[in-house]
Write a structure and sequence with these properties.
The structure is a homodimer. Chain A is of the alpha+beta class. The first copy, chain A, contains twelve helices and ten strands. The interface between A and B is large, with 101 and 102 residues.
Chain lengths: 442, 442
């Protein structure tokens, strides 16, 4: 949306809406002096509106490190580096995902790298030996995300410490204490992204991505009108090694052509009661899933089907049928559940001694408690309004889960196995192959 | 922040920054024709920027009804009108307050009037005989706000129905059923503003503002490290008729020179337990205050002092000392508590039969339950992270109330009665009088 060229008088002259405006405001009747004042006044108003835009959208653009030239003075080569794991907690509902994307706005990684660069812990992303354990999509959160990375060290010896290429340091102890990685990063991160722990890695080939041996997710939801026992009955049928193509969005275009994955455990529990001693639609619940690796949108698809089971619209055994890819090679076109409640809660690694710095811990807990308070006050206020209003309704309304489950609201429910189908894996492979052939030819 | 008066040429002429701008852009060198084009171009640019603001932050610019000329076809004069009360529930944290303000972004009233105009329930704000019961500030919510207003009626007779000036209708029943006021407005309002009930007013002079005989507020907060019994002990001392100048922001400039008000009741309760059977810093509590009329920021000031009492920093009896305006004519400069938890919960009127339309009720409950779910999921997720993280801290961190109480975080606490003081009422009156004298003279 560029500025109109203010020297393009012809364009302005002939625009019918502007001719009307011209007449309406009687600009012709103003003196030159008055017109000049009006121009100045309008230019000021334009600037004020621009300021409003800049202020309003400050949260929509990634933090950019400006004036990298100033950083040239920082002599990274004088320091050794340390291969470490960092455990990162983030609430993703204001972000466009974990991974950096061109022009897509703020991501967790963009904020993370801004903090790493600003605190001079890395020279650049490219030279930092960075690996991430999991990749969460837009709006998804994580309590236990882990990255491995090489950070500047204050010390010359210790687990994980090594001489980087081009090291020009003196090998005498520069400092007594290691950089407080958690604390310095947290001071440079927004409230909704925090480093909760770190661990030195003696094995400098250790990778957060390839050495992770298990990832757990939590999915939070209100009880609403759901039967949790039915949901758990269906959920247990997902345990074990299975072909999960009917429980994900297939990503054949990116080379994903095999869909065997393993779920090690799945539980469904009420974790927070609205009223003591009784079940309520306002109780909060969670599904906890433990596995090794997951397909694209796998948990959200699983939750969508579990919600249908919990609402009584499907039997728990529909899970078994959807896992039978010979009988059912095409995924029914159900909507996947909402992204908001999804949290990559735990990434498991063997033999890691996580260090929880106490100064940083106090700061992180205060920040998270502040965040919790803000949301809890809003939640409680809305709850109080509903408590006063519901008695005036003759019908009991139980819509707490509706927006989360994203289930279609048809008057007559279409069973999963009778729903319209997505293309099968074979069809998708053919489509992608054709498209590539066409690309090659053109 | 109003628009610059574009006819105040002298003001513009003599502003040094504008003189500079004038020279820089060589406006004097342009012809009148060129200046006119520039004005039109800038006016268009202002509109484009307003559209960007509206699009980028859909929640920040008031909904504007465009092309009012099209509405001229709607023949309001053919309909009778009905004097009614509307009960309105809104969550104000995304708004700039209840009352419309020029260029200040979205307010509850701006959205309300947009809906009233769009649904053809009123011809204009000016001719709608509109009164509001209470006026809430930026960020503040209300479950029980009430307005009185004259709406278009489908009927020709019934309680509150009258012939407006210029009525040209036929006095035969136009329709069988009254307009479903709640439903039609709610379909045109955002999720966080809803009309919950309406009532016809046989007495066409009935005013939501002047005929209200009591207003109650709720203030929601977490238990944190607060002693609720201490808070209630202090709170009870506020009951009765008192001079509350030390519990408000004085508004002498707007003519408020007397500060006697009456609080009829005040309670402090835990309304939601984090864990069954035991007190927890994560319990949610509320203060409920019933009175007739209030001073500016009175509840937020009361809460600030109650929080200091609850934290053990002040004795409950400090309330009595602050109500003794002879001994303490100047308010200690304590920060008032946060706006987020404040809710104008109930506005009381005698002999009103509120009507809760069931279709509208179902829609409102679904909307509020969806809002509740979104906030509850976030709250529960953050709670789960804290639950996992807190055991790693050697120190127990109890900061849940900090941001809400807005209490200063000095290393050594300064007691209220020893704090720096705000000017006394007499001093403020003198200041305002002097300023007015200067204005009159200039």
């Amino acid at each position: 949306m560029g500025e109109e060229s203010i020297s393009n008088i012809d364009l302005v002259k002939n625009d019918p809406s502007l001719l009307r405006l011209k007449k309406e405001t009687n600009l012709e009747n103003l003196s030159k002096e008055e017109l000049i004042s009006r121009v100045i006044s309008l230019e000021k108003h334009v600037q004020q509106l621009r300021n409003v835009i800049a202020k309003n959208s400050a949260s929509q653009m990634p933090t950019v490190i400006e004036n990298r030239k100033k950083d040239k003075k920082f002599e990274f080569s004088k320091y050794k580096r340390r291969h470490v794991l960092l455990k990162i907690c983030y609430f993703g509902w204001d972000y466009m995902g974990f991974a950096v994307q061109e022009d897509a706005g703020k991501t967790i990684e963009s904020e993370l790298f801004a903090a790493l660069l600003k605190s001079k812990l890395i020279d650049s992303r490219e030279t930092s030996n960075y690996h991430r354990c999991g990749r969460t999509d837009r709006g998804v959160s994580s309590y236990g995300q882990v990255i491995s990375i090489d950070l500047r060290s204050n010390l010359t010896e210790g687990p994980g410490i090594f001489e980087p290429e081009g090291y020009t340091g003196t090998n005498k102890n520069i400092k007594e204490e290691e950089v407080n990685y958690c604390n310095i990063l947290n001071r440079n991160l927004p409230d909704n992204i925090k480093v909760t722990a770190w661990a030195p890695l003696s094995n400098t080939k250790f990778s957060a991505r390839f050495d992770c041996n298990g990832r757990s997710y939590k999915y939070f939801f209100p009880r609403g009108n759901l039967d949790l026992k039915r949901m758990e009955k269906g959920g247990k049928l997902l345990i074990g090694p299975h072909d999960f193509r009917n429980f994900c969005k297939m990503d054949v275009g990116n080379g994903v052509v095999e869909y065997m994955r393993r779920i090690d455990s799945l539980t469904v529990q009420c974790v927070h009661r609205d009223k003591q001693g009784e079940d309520s639609p306002y109780d909060m619940c969670q599904v906890n899933i433990v596995g090794k690796a997951y397909l694209w949108h796998q948990i959200r698809c699983i939750m969508a089907v579990l919600f249908l089971i919990g609402e009584g619209k499907e039997e728990p055994e529909v899970i078994t049928q959807l896992l039978d890819v010979d009988a059912n090679p095409c995924r029914p076109a159900y909507s996947m559940a909402d992204y908001l409640p999804l949290n990559l809660f735990h990434c498991n690694f063997d033999d890691i001694n996580w260090e929880y710095d106490q100064v940083s811990m106090a700061y992180v807990l205060k920040t998270l408690q502040k965040l919790w308070s803000e949301h809890s006050v809003k939640t409680q206020m809305i709850r109080s309004c509903l408590e006063d209003l519901e008695p005036h309704s003759q019908e009991q309304i139980c819509s707490q889960v509706e927006h989360i489950s994203q289930a279609r609201k048809d008057k007559v429910y279409t069973p999963l196995l009778k729903m319209q189908k997505c293309p099968s894996l074979d069809d998708k492979i053919l489509t992608v192959a054709k498209r590539r052939k066409i690309d090659l030819e053109s």
